[in-house]
Amino acid sequence: MIGQRIAALRKARALTQDQLAVFSGIDSSNIRSYESGRSMLSVFTLVRIAEALDSAPGDFLVDLTSDMFSAPVLTVDRALLEKSYKPSGATA
Questions:
Q1: What is the Cα–Cα distance from 52 to 31, expressed in whole angstroms?
Q2: Which key words are in the record (predicted)?
């Protein structure tokens, strides 16, 4: 979803993926991965891409809902959270 929006705005700005990579300081292979949805991007990366496209990071997030993201990504995130999270007062 976000990757498709990045690609659409990049094309609207008449930029190639390589040009966006140069302007954002992000490797072009990563730009391709984000646009295709193969990789998730961090907030920091989204900010850099948004700045390179003369846009606000929130423009890529409008109308997104959690059900738009694949379950495996959410499962991995949840597993990592459960592995590292210990409630206050919990004993090991």
A1: 12
A2: DNA-binding
Return the percentage of the chain with pLDDT > 70, whole number.
Answer: 68
Domain segments of the chain: what residues?
2-84
User: What residues contact residue 15 under an 8 Å CB cut-off, 6+ apart?
Assistant: 23, 53
Structure tokens at 7: 């690609």
Torsion of CA 24, 27, 29, 31, to 10 degrees: -20
Q: pTM of the full predicted structure?
A: 0.69
> What are the two backbone dihedrals, phi and then psi, of residue 8, each rounded to the nearest 5 degrees?
-65, -45
Distance from C-alpha of 18 to C-alpha of 35, rounded to nearest angstrom: 12
Question: Token pair of 18, please?
Answer: 């390589």
2-84 has which fold? 434 Repressor (Amino-terminal Domain) (1.10.260)
Residue 28 makes CB contacts below 8 A (sequence gap 6+) with 17, 18, 20, 21
Locate 51 and state its tokens. 């700045």
